[in-house]
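Input.
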Amino acid sequence: MNDDNRDIAAMPDNGEAFARLRAQLATQAPALLIDGRWQACASGATLEVDDPATGERIARIAAGDADDVDRAVAAARRAFRDGPWPRLPPSRRAAALFALADAIEREQDEFALLEALDAGHSLASIRRGDLPLGLRSLRDYAGWATKIAGEVPMRASEQAGMDYFLREPIGVVAIVTPWNAPFLMVLQKLAAALAAGCTVVIKPAELAPLSALRIGELCRHVGIPDGVVNIVTGTGPTAGQALAEHADVDLISFTGSTQVGQSIMAAAARSNLKRMVLELGGKSPVLVFADADLDKAARAIVGEIAFKSGQYCAAGSRLFVQRSIQDALLERMQAAMDGIRIGAGYAQGSDMGPMISQRQRERAQAIVDHSLGEGAQALRGGRARPGPGYFYEPTLLTQATPKMRIAREEIFAPVLTVMAFDDDATPAQVAALANDSHYGLSAKLWARDLGTVHELIGRLQSGQVIVNGGGGEATLPFGGVKQSGYGRENGHVGLSAYTEIKAVRLGY
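Output.
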């Protein structure tokens, strides 16, 4: 890795647009979106939002608290109980979602810059991933809005009456999103909730809230009724906890850490047994066998670690490789790492941006240092980059054991742990290595032998299995098993979480 890659951070991709964006953010008044109006939070308190590439303040946001959450939930409840949104023909809700997608698409260049500045991700990854996936979520769920249906069981012709069930919007939904994909997560959850006819209160991550605020303004612009979409910025322990405990919230959709997910489950039990969709942590295994395409595998494995600087819940961070090909694979992976250009996400040519905060970087460093102290070896990286911002070297750790912190804890950094398995290991033995984790969000498998592939698919404890890089359009349900979550997102399976079933037994 070349040291001069650090100079990339000084060169914005679009200087004039970047300067306009910075000026706009610097003068933007901290406000919450409640009942269709931007208004100050009850306490008047604010939080600073930093550029993770420099550590400099880029904006101030309102620090919402329980009083603000109460106002936002009350507005969402009124809109659900008395407003038009749940009662609109589904085609009208679909039209609003299509209009929101079109409005965002017209501003996609600004959204890409905003996300790169706020969250630190590279413009290339946002333009290839977050933007098209977010727009597709809006349009996919717009299509699903007209297809929400119950069922009518078959009955005998002489039977009096009939039985059937309806699907109805579940009510007021709290959407709590993470800082590692703020734009995408807001749109995926919002689209499903709105398609079902729900009203929402969004609590974006305080470290990267800016795209959510802009989405809220566009919801107003395209005519989504007042109170249907509300946004309360603030910290997780204050605003987030207030939403989790609120007795008038019917469902909470959360993406974030397992620890916070556990606290949300406890809060739901204490309050009103609200429904939950929880997409939580991961420590995803990557299994590489001797018959794999090593060039393709190496590029994909390294690319995933560089993607969002490793701050990706489904990132393959535990690599298990067949011993006979370990050296050959590591050689290819080091070459791929050498080509990674590090710099501010909004900079020209940057492949990997900074981590989100100094705190997150220090946590990752502590896990790496602890494992190095127990005998792991840093083949590449293993340290923070000097200078401003929260950059971390892409890291390869070898000589690790499955019991080390680096192999067990979700590190959320561009760090990959490499462990070998014996050439004569059975698929059951390899699967046991992969399954030795509290998590079960995603697993990646590189092999050509179909017998091995299908046996491992059956044995891996994971919400998804990606074989040889995957294929298709990734519209499948997404979520985890074990401590990686509860429920699924995407498509009609994800949409069903935002509906309630009402059974009807009709006599006449």
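The chain has two domains: 33-280+485-504, 284-479.
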